[in-house]
Amino acid sequence: MVPVLSSLAVGCIFLFAGILKLVSPSGFVRHLSALLIKSAPAAPGPILIISTGLLAAAECILGVAAALRIFPAAILPLCLLFIASLAAIAVWGAVSRRTDDCGCFGNLIVLRPGVSALLSILYAALITIAWRMPTAYALSPSSQRNAFSGSLAFFSGAAIFSFWSYAKFGQDLVNTSPVRPRRRWKPSWLAHYGVHATEQTQLIVLMSAGCSVCKKWISPLNKISRREDMPQVIGAMAAGPQEISDFVSEWGAAYPVLSVRPHTMSRLANAFPTIVLLEAGRIASVQVGRLPAELLDRLGNAVPETEFAAR
Q1: Does 289 lie in the same domain as 162?
Q2: What digits encode the pLDDT tens for the residues 289-302?
Q3: Same domain? 247 vs 160
Q4: Is residue 177 part of a domain?
């Protein structure tokens, strides 16, 4: 019974993580992009998207095979190899400071590399038990073949559809982003956020130093930041203090611009500028390239809407 439960536990975890990657691929795509490019995650190309789709499908197929003990003499060693590979990549990403989480569960659950490494050791131990300890439980050879063929066909088709949809529309099938309406904003996402966030309502502007639209927004955002009837404006960039200081000095931002870890920014924003309206610490709305409609109504003719349109 112990070997059966061990493989079932790890198989269910594989299946859960793989399905998350299929229904919400953006987090895993950006994670692999950050591993490949140290400075900032690049726009995902077709090779990267196809690779992540194959990995997600493989994780699901291995999960089903481990949970049902399909061809255990072959599948369980493959699971060990898969665990070791992902653990090594996560540790390398942390040591090289390309990422600050393992990316195992996309945007839904964030695991630090140390926690991920400990869990990988646990998973490996459970798979070793399932592989090396004898058990009387086994599906018939025909049932194993049918289950493996069915999972291979289903998850391959699901991966093709999901990643085709993501490549075409740039959106996940299921939104698991931590930045979505009605969720609580985490002050830890922005360095020194608690020091600067002194008002009931904030307009968080997630920017990039290389974004031309972000630079065009600075002047109208300065106007908003000076109006008492408008939310407090706080900018955020995935950059160090000196780079942010140079950016503020060059473009004349009159509001605070705070530092964000690069991988945290990749989880918070798919494109720049992303505007997050906070009310009493909760996310009221999220817009890309445009101010919330209620703020535009309050601005009236003071700042034309075209000044805020993404280009």
Answers
A1: no
A2: 887 777 777 766 45
A3: no
A4: no
